[in-house]
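Work Package 3 (structural annotation) set out to generate three-dimensional models for the target panel prioritized at the project kickoff. During this period the team completed the workflow that converts sequence records into discrete structure tokens, so that structures can be stored uniformly alongside our sequence database. As a representative example, we reproduce one entry of 126 residues exactly as it appears in the project archive.
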Amino acid sequence: MQRFLFIIREDLTRLEKMTNQERYSRMVEEQLAWVKSLADAGLHLQGEPLAIKGRLVRKDEVIADGPFVDAKEGIAGFDVILAENLDQAAEIALTCPLVRNEIAIIEVRPIDGLIRLDEALKEGKK
């Protein structure tokens, strides 16, 4: 099995107008049930919603405060899942309630398995 990152993207303008209660109560039960079904199948490793505010940083400067005015969509959260391949990961993403209900889109990216940073850090402590 391979690890995949689901980058959950939502419309920033719509999100910015919503209260936290509106943002998190909408679809929460259905989304939690979806995550639980993946976890019960041993496919869900991690995931979190993200705050709207953030910073865009490069070399020696903060170039923008978030939400970022030049972007229509922003990253609203992420999940890390297990799948056999990219096609299976994309099929799993299609089952997400946020996608099915046209609230979000999910970018599916393989996590490069060449170096596991968590394992490399553990080795360095020995």
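The radius of gyration is 16 Å.
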